[in-house]
Amino acid sequence: MRFINLGSRQDASHYVAIEMFKEIHYNKCTLLGLATGGTMKDVYLKLVELLQVNHTDISCLETFNLDEYFMLDKNDPNSYMTYMKQHLFDKIGMKESQFHLPDNDEIDVEEDNEAYDQAIREKGPLHIQLLGIGENGHIGFNEPGTPFNSKTRLVDLTETTIAANSRYFEDEEEVPTKAISMGIDTILSSERIILLALGEKKAEIMAKLYSMKAPDELIPASSLLTHKNVEIVMDNATARLIK
Ligand code: F6R
Fold first, then answer.
1. What pTM, to 2 d.p., does this model score?
2. Are the C-beta atoms of 148 and 226 separated by less than 8 Å?
C-alpha cells in the first residue's frame, strides 16, 4: 500500500483524474469501478475535461459503481445515479448500457446483488477501482466489522455514516439508513485501486491506517493491505497526523 501526499486538494484530485484518464485513453475498453461523495467531485470535473480536450473514444468504456442507497428513487437528487449522471455519465455522453449501479429496489435483492458481482467477474477485473473513505474507515458502504470476504449486498449504514451523509439532505428523516454496497472481496478483485482522501476530517483515520501493520476487520480500509496494487492519495489536511 503506497501513501502519497500531493499537497493541495486540487493537485490530489487532478492526479487521480489523470490516472483514470490515461487508462481510458490508452485502453479503449476500460472497466472502471467508481465512487461518489464530496471527495470525487473535482476528480470527475478534471476527468471530463481531459476526455473532452483529447477527444477520447469512450464508446467501449464500462463502469460499475460501488454503491447506491436502498429504495431511493434513481431520479432523486440525492441518488448516486443522479450524482453520476451529473458529474460524469451525461457530461461525456455515456449510454445506459455502459454504466452500472447496484439495483436498489426491494425486489429480488439477493439475486440482483449476485448478478452484479457476476457481471464484474465476467467482464472484469476492473482496471481501476476508485475509492473514498469514511471517517470510520469504511470503503464503499462496508462499515466496520464487515468480513473481508463480503460480496455485494444490502447493508445497514452506521450512525456516523448517516450523520455524514445527512449534509446532502434537507430533512434528516429523509437520509437513507440502508444501501447496496459492493463487498470488500469484490473491491479487492480489481487490478488497481486508488483511494482518495481529502480534508481534515479524514486525518485521524488516515493516520490510523498508515500505522497498521496487519488488516483488521474493524477498519474496512485495512483490507487494502492484502492487495498488491493500492495507492492512497491525500492532501496536506488529510496527511497532517501522519508522522
Ligand atoms: C461513495 C462511497 C463512500 C464514500 C465515503 C466518503 O460511493 O463509497 O465510501 O467514498 O463515504 O464520502 P465523502 O467523499 O463524501 O467524504
1. 0.97
2. yes
